[in-house]
Every structure is written in C-alpha cells, then in structure tokens.
Amino acid sequence: LKPDLKTRYLGLDLKNPFVAGPCPLTGDLESLEALEEAGAAAVVLPSLFEEQIEHEELEAHRLLEFGIESFAEALDFLPELGTFNSGPENYARLVVRARERLSIPVIASINGHSPGGWVRYARRLEDAGADALELNAYFVPTNPQMSAAEVEKRYLDLVAGVRAQVRLPLAVKLGPYFTALPHFAGALKEAGADGLVLFNRYLHPDIDLDTLEVVPRLELSRSLEMRLPLRWIAILHGRIPLSLAATGGVHEAGDAVKLVLAGADVLMLASTLLQHGCPRLTRLRNGFAAWLEEKEYRSVEQAKGSMSRNHCPDPGAFERANYMKALVSYTGRLV
Ligand SMILES: Cc1cc2nc3c(=O)[nH]c(=O)nc-3n(C[C@H](O)[C@H](O)[C@H](O)COP(=O)(O)O)c2cc1C
Fold first, then answer.
1. Is any ligand 1 atom within 6 A of the Cβ of residue 52?
2. Would you state the pLDDT for residue 12?
3. Which atom of ligand 1 is nearest to the CA of 27?
4. Were both Cys, which of 228, 279, 308, 321 would link to 237 (CB 3.0–4.6 Å)?
C-alpha cells in the first residue's frame, strides 16, 4: 500500500510535505511551473524587503510633495502613481501571476526588521491572492544596551503589526539565535503567528583580504545543516500549537524523513534545487515515499513527530547529555 503523503501546514491541505522555499527559482514563473510539475506541494516566493517597500514610499512621497507645489503638473502625474513600477507592485504582480499559473498554494514572503507603516503592504499581498504569508524576520542585535527581552519584543511587535493587517495564515521565519526558543515560540503564537519556519540561514559576511572590504558570501547549504532544525523541531513538536516548517540542509530523501520524524509539517528546499534543478524535488519526494513504504508507515501523519522529544524513547538525546555520548563516539573515550 502506498503511504498517504498529505500534510497540513498553516491550515493549508498539502499533497505532500515538499515545498519550494524562497529562492531565485520561486521568483520566476517558468521555474515555478517546473516546481509544480516536479511535485512541489506549495511554493514560497522570494522575500519582498522592507527596504524595497520603504524606498517606494519615499519615492511616492517625493512625487506627492512635488505635486503639491505644482498642482497642474501633478494632475498629469498622479494617475501614474497607481502603476508605479516599483518593488512592491512588481511583487504583487508576481503573486497574481503565480496564482493564475499554479494550482498549488502560493505563499508570499516579506522580509522585515522593524515595526512600521510598511507592514500594511502585507494586505496588498493578501489582496493579490497569496494563500499565506511568511514573515522573514531578520534583525542582528548589535547594541549592547538592548536586552534579549527587548529583541524578542521587537519580533513580537512586528508579528502583531503584520497580524493586524491580514487574516491570512502567517508563518514566521526565524534565525536560530534565541536564548529560550520554546518560550519565545509560545509568545509568537500569542502575537498571531500560525507557524514557524526554522531556521533562517544568515549569510555571515566575510573579509576580502585583497581589497580589505567586508563582502557578502553566498554559499549553498550541506546536509549536515539539517541537524539544527532537526533538534529544535523535535523539541517544539506537540508542545506549542504552531505549524513547523524545516529549512536548511534538506538535500537527500533521508534528510526529509528525519525532519518529519522529528515533527516537521513541511520541508522547504532551496540549495538542492538550485544545485540540481527542479526535478530534484521529485527524486526527494519519491525517496521519502519509498522509505515510509518500506518501514510500513501508512501516512506522513503517522510518521510525523514519532521521534520528537515528546515521543522518542530517549528525550534526553535532544538535550545536553548527548554531548558526552557524541564525544565518546568521536574519540572513543571521554577525556
Ligand atoms: C540564492 C538564495 C536566495 C534566497 N532568498 C531568500 C529570500 O528571499 N527569502 C528567504 O526567506 N530566504 C531566502 N533564502 C533562504 C532559503 O529559502 C533557505 O531558507 C536557506 O537557503 C536554507 O535552505 P537550503 O539548505 O535548502 O538552501 C535564499 C537562499 C538562497 C540560496
């Protein structure tokens, strides 16, 4: 009997847990179609950045000011504002087109770091027909005066601000650097989140030794990285009523299986698709289904979370005690 691959994420019924995560492939209509063809259950579009939105607001404001000073000219000018060729408007168009061309859910993504007027663009994306919204919250605290509680509050205000704008299901994509993630996850739920996407993979800047410049370096992930979401999804599963998406290091079918056993509702793929192309998704989905079948799981729902901290025979394995075992497994002894 073939296992039932259906899963639920953010209240959406998905045909399997494989989602194309935000990356350049999901920003292009042709590759979006190829991803659907390959079996993706949903797609997350690349993020629209707070800076892009604010830039447009500034430009629009300038035009309006100009308009007030010379009213006659403004009359000719203002109608064009509606079709202003801008980041947010282009993005909303991408949402509309993706919805027209695909039959799977289309999740829009906004990247933001500060609460502000820009969050009302979330509604624009809801109006454009997005099935859900992912808030890619990226904030690197550098101020020594700012406490962990203040950092968390900033995220919570951001989530509450977006939630006040939309009724759409809302996922929050977080970085891994939180002191007390389970508590914070509960607070995010209270602020209006429906799910977490774990984790945002920060791009750490590098120093170019020839030019002595700080440069961004984009490198694709490796399978090993999935252990980070694996641990935290296993710890969170079944304890806070939030959907859980795993992102980071899913390259093989086995990576996907492990994350679902830990409790992930969906797996988001980026690097492996960029490396091998959209058909890679079919291969992962088939390998995943074959594993479930071989181990006689009837469904994804049956497998989901069966190795989470709540359910696995050795919950301590996800905690610190494991460190000693790991050391012994590496060196063959403790010291
Ligand atoms: C080229 C590239 C562009 C990306 N753009 C976005 C983005 O716009 N928004 C976002 O939330 N994540 C973005 N990501 C992060 C991925 O969605 C994903 O979370 C991360 O790469 C880890 O997953 P992976 O190991 O499958 O690559 C991007 C990743 C890559 C490699």
1. no
2. 98
3. 8
4. 308
